[in-house]
Amino acid sequence: MRIMGLDFGSKTVGVAVSDSLLLTAQGLEIIRRKDENKLRQTLARIEELIVEHEVSEIVLGLPRNMNGTEGIRVELTNEFKDKLERRTGLPIVMWDERLTTVAADRTMMEAGVRREHRKEYVDKIAATLILQGYLDRKRMLENE
Q: Which fold has domain 2-142?
């Protein structure tokens, strides 16, 4: 079984999945949303990926403000979480995603990805960083 990482945004959802040993996260794809208020196609695609990759758990990025407060994006992400839970029946772990987009952007800059092309990849990389952080923490707790 694998774990899926999601970076939920108003226009896109970045998707990553772990390897079967739960050691590393790999970016999978970016689901593009046609309408911010409609999630049916997004949820259907996530379900397809869950089946395809034998996912048993989901880690969803929680977009807190830098000072730790929760704004409208947290509220929308929690609504998405509820819909995803009802639809998949899988456990969903919320993971603090502060600075993952910044880290993703920095990673692409260091790799020489041109500024105009970064938007194409940032959500998938952010999902990978969210999932990798969770996998690392999980492994650390298991080794204590």
A: Nucleotidyltransferase; domain 5 (3.30.420)
